[in-house]
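Final report, Chapter 2: Outcomes

The project's central promise was a pipeline that accepts a single protein chain and returns its three-dimensional structure in a standardized token representation, suitable for archiving and comparison. That pipeline is now operational. To close this chapter, we reproduce one record exactly as it appears in the project archive, with the input sequence first and the structure output second.
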Amino acid sequence: MYKTLTGTIAKRISTHLKEKSLLSAEQKGCHPGSEGCKDQLMISEAIYEDCRRRNKNLRIAWIDYQKAFVSVPHNWVEKSIELVRVNSTIIRFCKLSIEKLNTRLILQTKQEVMQPQHIQIR
């Protein structure tokens, strides 16, 4: 259920960003139908192979912003969606969801299953 709900919200935010022209063409990870990094690496490989066949010089640099939304403070994400004027219901949902993010680590051995309390994600 959660994946369906967050997928629907992501689609609405993506549509809003596209309608308002708020997502640059260079930002590949959030475009619908784009595999982001995977697509870009395949394009880079095709360009490299073409240059190699034609004996052309080529220089490539990649910048990988690893786990961007995990490493950015949640209040920055909240402020960002407010700044681009996403629907207020979606903003409220995102804020409440972020406040309630938690996980549970389960350790199963031959003798027992240990399940500590939920761990709040900050």
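Archive annotation: The mean pLDDT is 81.
This record, like all others produced under the grant, will remain available to the consortium after the project formally closes.
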